[in-house]
Amino acid sequence: MKIEIGGLHKVYRGGVHALDTVDMNIPGGMFGLLGPNGAGKTTLMRIMAGILRPTSGDLYIGEYDCNTEHGRTAVKRIQGYLPQDLGVYPDLSAREFLDYIGILKGMDDRKARRHRVNELLEIVSLTSAANRKLKTYSGGMKRRIGIAQALLNDPRLLIVDEPTAGLDPEERIRFRNLLSELGGDRTVLLSTHIVEDIAQTCRNLAILKQGRVVFQGTTMDLVGEARGRVWIVTTSGAKPQGDFTIVSTLHMGTSVQYRLVGSLAAPDEDGAVATEPSLEDSYVWLMREQRAPGVTVASK
Amino acid sequence: MTDCAGIAERGQCRMREQLSAFLGVFRYEFKMQIRRKSLWIAFAGFTLLLLSNAFTVLHSPERSITTLPLVQLVAAVTLQLNWLPAIGIGVFLADRFPRDRSSKVDELFETTPAALRTRLAGKYFGSVLASIAPAFLTYCIIIGILAFYKQTLLIFPIAIVSYAVIVVPGILFIAAFTLFCTSVLWIPLYQFLFVGYWFWGNMLSPDAGLPTLTGTILTPIGGFICAGIFGVAPMPWLKGATPFEGLASLFVLLIVPLLVMVLFYYCLKWEQSHK
Q1: Could you report the predicted ipTM of this complex, rounded to two decimals?
Q2: Distance between CA atoms of residues B54 and A292, nearest Å
């Protein structure tokens, strides 16, 4: 399912511009939406999920025009949404909560709904805790219930907003793998500020900053942007100084190894060795470029 | 899921989808409200209070209530039993709408095809029915005692009609205002104001020298319905109420909540499109 976004604006009450002329084409499969906090990712997700209305601009999800009530309702029938902060009724059990959401999603066959709820509880490994009240659930368990409710109607479009925030490393990997599996036969929109989550799951991504798209392309394209701008400096002397960003510092006994992103004036004199950028390096490079005055938007 | 492909008329399909959602919301709102321990504790306390008074009232030679004809007796008892449970119902309904916002489930629900009006109607009727259930149970116990005292089963159908006509419209009335008002007011403040309103607008005598809704057809306690339709006026200011006034009060108490809920829906719709 393709998503086309054209000139999307969102201005909140009080004149806060959350989205500013966002143009984007999202193909099927996993698609990452990356950006710093406050970039407008959640606003974009909430508009796509039908919670917010854009101030202006076009949004087509598949064949549906989301500027019409009919289009929005049609999209709601085929989408699943996992919000950043999942709201639940603490006094309902997980099974009851999923049943309730299933009803709201139009699953009116009770038998089929029960079967689907049990199936999803199994997928997210919560069968044994299914009858426990949600107020007794940990953050990770709530996230898993969140993904289960999003999948109830077997959605063609899955929108997940910061799904791994607050999860421990094991849970995060589990979650990422689950999303990757789901992305095989549907469109999965993954919004996050954790670069690693995108690197491990998405081929295509867009980067938002201050409500604007500053990059759209493949992860390889993004890595290509930073090639020749990532350096390793190993020194036992002072910390390197210059127009670059230190992305990591590794103490190695008598010396310290720094990983730098930026343009070095004299790499040989500094003892810097160029290295292959990671997606995180490339993201840092792009953010640096965006900060520099007079730099034009890099978009593919 | 609702399969619209085989149905010729799309509208019919949507209606089925919304009806199913309404019944689902109704069921879960009912379930969540009826499970509240505090609701049952409050009404158990109220029942004990009533039971301790009931025998005194029934055996008191000065009380003329038991000498009334059966229909009037039941109507009078129904009205007398309404003043305290209605407060409880208003208080216990106060958190039903705000908790959806504070827990953010409203946003999740907004991403489903269930329309706002469907969810609102399901919430309203589900939570009202659950809130009224313990009060109705208390009422049934008292009516049971009365039936035993009067040695007639005829009292039960009369009681059901009396309850539906005298109590239910007022409860629908206060429930609609409760949902609406708590969308803008802090819950404890609303509860405080509601209790104050209840005494001011239902119990304060019009002769007390203060302006009050008591003595008008807008009193949700159902005094005018009781006096006008059933012909029994337990409060002095209800004496002389005509059947027309009784019917007018019934009509107003049913139509006003409908209007309030429609207004509430449009306010929420407006708010949604201006987020």
Answers
A1: 0.88
A2: 82
